Structures
1.
Amino acid sequence: MTLKTPRCGLRAVLAAAALFVPLSAAQAGPAQDAVIAHYEQAAKAADADFQGFSAANGKAFFMANHTGGKPDTPSCTTCHTSNTAAAGQTRAGKPIDPMALSANPARYADLAKVEKWLARNCNSVVGRDCTPQESGDVLTFLIAQ
Amino acid sequence: MEQTDQNARQVPVWDAGIRLFHWTLAALVFFCLIQGFFGLRSLFGVHVWAGYGIALLIGFRVIWGVFGSTFARFSSFRPSLAAVMAHLRGHAAPAYGHNPLGALMVFALLLVLSGLVATGIAGLGGTEYEGPLAAIVSVDAGFAARMLHEGLAILLALMVAAHVGGVIFESRREHENLVRAMVTGRKRARADATPRNAARIVPALLAAGIVAACVAAILSALAALPQARAPIAAIDPLWAAECSACHTAHHPALMSAARWQALMAALDDHFGEDASLDATSTEKITAWLAANAAETTDAKAAMLFSEIDPAEPLRITATPGWKALHHDIPDAVFAAPPVGTRANCALCHADAQAGTFRIDAIAIPAPTKKETP
């Protein structure tokens, strides 16, 4: 809640700025920026040639069917659906709030939560931890949505 | 049926108390039989209140059997084998009040209805944690009471049929509409007419007051007992938040501590998904689940799901008890939205998270056509 007031002010500035800059930057607040910064740091540490995150690569990763994970969850879209602005559903029937930041402004503000779900879901879908590059790409894609 | 002679003198037989008792009882019994045999779950609460109503009516009838007017009094229709035999041979004159067979039926109905009230209240207390016996009837005894209740209900339905058949038969034999007599309270006067003595209202009210005071004292004593049988109602917020992110937060009473511990130790492969938690949360939730697990409570679900499927010991929906309880629900209901999966307990059981799984908290939605992606 303490973040709310400064973020609203910032969002107004960003909304005005959105008229001039690519839409991708319009929604993210400092909390999301901090999450991205964390993965940027990790990506740089893992790869000296790190070239930045790519929303296009993130989208491809999110939409793809993977092998190596658990058989019931071949893709992120198994539960989240391919429409990031729409609600998904867990295999046990619970609704999942939309993944697109524009549809769900509370997303990607808590690094611990992001790490928890990426750790679980990467293991379920691809059968291993996602690399910082993959994580950052997917987050960049979803934050831009 | 022959029309009654318009000139025949009509005399009062059934007093207002008996008539009101009879038709109220008939209505309540009719409702309870229909609700019960057709399994109208949404009307379960009404069934319970109708049952309490029947208990009141039995109390009234017993008091009225002592202090009511002549034909209401038990002493006016004492069961007698000789009278029944004479009646069956057709030797006896038509009775003013209850005929000898009808008298037997009155006592039999009162007995069976008392049994239904007793087993109903015991079942309600044992398996629904509700009513005066909630604190003292175990879930095992509650289920046994429900079995008896069902058996007695079948017996009651047969007795009602025999009663209605007997009334029709006697109406024809006596050329007198006995159903109408129970409405108007009057029957055709006969030469051997017994005059009706009035009810003794003051002693009846006194008796009712004494009985009511005793019942109230028993009820308040029962209500003062610790209600410790129901599954724990205080929900651990960490458990609710973490587990219900993906599914109904399954109540700790659903499994034994050993099964919960095994389940929590393997969250990285949780029914085909990785549901890993940090060590601190895992430890806290495991401790809470174990402390409130099946063996710590006399909960219905704990008893029903205690037998496990050795192939899938951690899957509640694989237990023989779960399967038996859900066998009549079509696969389509589980497979299609809004349910989607057998693990979605809370969609049909509004009280799933509380672990009570009461009959009247069940609402099964119709399956909607699954959207093709």
Note: Strands of chain A lie at 88-89, 95-96.
2.
Amino acid sequence: MSAEAPEKKEAGPGLLLLVGVALLALTTLTYALSHVELGRWAVPVALAIAATKAGLIAAIYMHLHERRGSAPLIAATAVLFVALLAGLASLESATRFEPTRPPGPFRVPPISAHGNEPLPPAAPVPGMPPDPKLSP
Amino acid sequence: MSLEPASPPVVPQASHFGSDAAREQAAHVGMWVFLATEVLLFAALFTAYAVYRVDYPETFRAAREHMKVGIGTANTYLLVTSSICVAFAVWSVRQERTGLATFLLLCAVVLGLGFLTLKGVEYAAHVREGALPGRWYALEEFPRPGASLYFTLYFVMTGVHALHVLVGVGVLSVLTVQTAWGKYSGRYHTPLELGGMYWHLVDVIWLFVWPLLYLV
């Protein structure tokens, strides 16, 4: 651990207020855009606005602009791993053949009120002798 | 076998912690490592959302019709405003204005409690409708494949987030009392910065949860 002395360049009230106004404005923009039919661009646009807000909060409110070296590196690593995990997993899901996708989920029939009741005896198969292990 | 210690005991006031600036840097790095693990926890949930959204695109797009968009949006404004309050509280302490900082932190706590209250109202409405996770799903107006998965993800994502809001409100309450007692000053306020960073992270996560579950 290096004993690096962080150079202090603290955010003034003007910058804090500017970021706050930007956050509220971008929140309003996200809500307004949800009433516009953007089709396949709806999710990327919403995520881009959210990422902008997250960047502003991390840089100014979470003091990353005052830090050098390790703290921004850790933050960037976290973002990279989120992108890798979510990106690659959804890419894999999106490039599957249609029949390999699960059809469900459907509603499961309710379990009986008595809990784990034994299953009814299996119907005898024609042409086969009855299984002595299954008969009571 | 001898029970004598192999090395002499630690000398008190050892100088290996370095300067105040180095300690502050170490505290911030440690907090960022913790926040990165929190991000990875939520990354797993966002990944599950992404995968199932790819599998059931129509269901996930139509599900917002059955969400309380007004409550979700109000909660977004509450969290963003409380983040602004915390940022100004840290600035106030750096300017030695602890009275103002205490007031701002108290505002942030109240806004956080408001978030949790609205979340509770929203959960109650979903329970009444039968929009429940997994096999308890019974929302008759929305009987599509994948709808129960959507509401499972909704309850897990917002539930884990609400748990973080609860912890954040607790942390901010302690910091409010400590600030009011004059524990922090322009010279020493690292715990206030770290607690504030946790609260900001909770806000950042909601900024992604809100559009994905309520808007798009």
Note: Chain A has three helices and no strands.
